[in-house]
Amino acid sequence: MNFEFFIARRIIASKDYKSSISAPIIKIAITAIAIGIIMMLVSIATGVGLQEKIREKVSAFNGDIIITNFDTNFSNDSQIPISKNQDFYPNFPSVDGIDHIQVTALKGGVIRTAENFEGIVVKGVGDDYNWNAFSDFIIEGRLPNYSENLNDEILISQYLANRLTFKVGDRVNTFFLQDAENKKTRSLGLQIVGIYNSGFQQFDEQYLITDIRHIQRLNKWDDDQIGAFEVFVDDFDNIQEVGNAVYNETASTLDTQTIRQKYGAIFEWLDLFDFNIFLIIGIMILVAGINMITALLVLILERTQMIGILKALGSNDWSVRKVFIYNAMYLIGVGLFWGNLIGLGLLFIQKYFKLFPLNPDTYYVTEAPVYIDAGYILLLNGGTFLLCLLMLLIPSYIIAKISPVKAIRFE
Fold first, then answer.
1. Before 369, cis peptide (omega within 30)?
2. Torsion of CA 222, 225, 226, 232, to 10 degrees
3. In terms of CB atoms within 10 Å, which of 147, 224, 225, 268 comes out highest?
4. Residues 6+ apart with CB under 8 A from 41
């Protein structure tokens, strides 16, 4: 067995170690490391979780990249149609990193009841629409089926359903302005088959999902005319690069926009989370390191006579320093163990029981989302252990200044 490791183990296992003057300071150091790792785990899990959840919701309503006619200016009304017959649809072989493409069309309208009315944006989708995100949003009823003959099935948000007192199975009367000059309107009767709640009120308060063929008929478009293509990417971190490639590969009459560009304010706010996470990690590691330095200095002071004896018996400075570094490694390991146990426990409780709600008007979600991944957990623990250990190398150098003769006489 390694000599230094053997001595460190004997120190840790001794009863004097647990009842010595340094015991309270050691407990404080372990507690600081545990609290630090808890704070870091929670900040990363909730920060990244919130970023992921909001991004997924924005993508669910818009796709990651939107391709429209240049003259449409990305409004909530598909004013000028584009042909569905494009080289990049239904596949985009010339650009890597694209997962799915779907066709959509938007039209502004009004829902009117006997007592109330609401302005809405009717989103028409086809049989190629990706329902994965909306499957998680459904709270009542089912998803509509637009793969067969034209039908009147729609999805409406819980927000609109509550305001207009609708429920699954109700008929909805919608009205659309057809000609701005003549103020002509057309009505459309639709039936609610599902109610969704994304928790993103900016979208929930306006979007109603229906068959794209209704939009084509209202706008008097041909069957191959649509409002926009929504493109989904494999890796959202590469959205800007893929967006630029898509722009270069589409016709000059088409324009592209990523959701980072369309909802710049939201994503700039989300980017601030990265700074906050790194700030918390830095502060927590610094606090834990300072507490460990204090504990190490107290341990050295308390074991001054032992240091003198080891030096007198022939141990060099680095050998004696290793004894205390091994001791510190044990303390750091204990702190990390309890920090991970408590931190991951809290995260799993939140993940499955959702005990901590959030205001959707501010955070776009109804509860604090949690992102748990073994990669960042291992990296966080390894980085904390290594940085704390590096911070201890300098104060351990004080051992080299201790004289064996004076150390043995030290009381």
1. no
2. 140
3. 225
4. 339, 340, 343, 344, 347, 377, 380
* Residue 220: other Cβ atoms inside 10 A: 9
pLDDT at 181 over 60: no
Percent of the chain with pLDDT over 70: 93
The Cα 54–Cα 371 span in angstroms is: 12
Does position 297 have pLDDT exceeding 90, yes or no?
Answer: no
| DSSP assignments along 15-58, one per residue | HHHHHSTTHHHHHHHHHHHHHHHHHHHHHHHHHHHHHHHHHHHH
The predicted model scores a pTM of 0.83
267's tokens: 């994503």
29 vs 14, 326, 353, 365, 392, CA distance in Å? 19, 15, 32, 37, 13
Angle (CA) 248 249 252, round 5°: 70
C-alpha angle 139-141-147 in degrees, rounded to nearest 5: 120
Residues in the chain: 411
385 backbone dihedrals φ, ψ, rounded to 5°? -60, -45
Distance of alpha carbon 312 from alpha carbon 307, whole angstroms: 9
